[in-house]
Amino acid sequence: MFKNQTFAKLVEAEKPTGEVVSVQDLLVIIRGLEGASVSGVVLFENGGRGLIRAIRDTMVEVLTFTNEVAILGTLAVLENEVLEVGVGEALIGRVVNALGEPLDGKGAIATTARPKFLLRHRLSSSAKP
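Predicted structure:
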C-alpha cells in the first residue's frame, strides 16, 4: 500500500497518523496524530522526518529535519514518542544531522547512550475539532 516500508509498518502497528494540511518552508502543520507529544518524531509518507514542536487543538506543528518536502494531503505517522539521538565518543570528528545520522560518508556510527528529550504537552483524544 505504501512505498516506504518503515512508514507502512508504523501504520500497520496502528501508530497515530495525521494529514499534512499546511507547509511553510520547514514548518509543517498536521491534523491528527492523536496522543502525540511535543518532542515526538514524525515520519512522512515520502520518508522525511520532523520534530513535533507545538500542539494546538487538533493540529500539530512539525519542524522538518530532512530535505524531503512534505506534500499537502499526504500522511504522517508518529515514529517515536520522543527524540532520541545517540551520544558518545564515536561521534567525535563526525558530521551528523539533527537525528544523529551520519552525513560525512564514513559509515554508520555506533553509539550506546540515547538520552531522551523532555515531554511538555500531549495531544488529547478529547481535543475539539
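Summary: The first strand starts at residue 17 and ends at 24.
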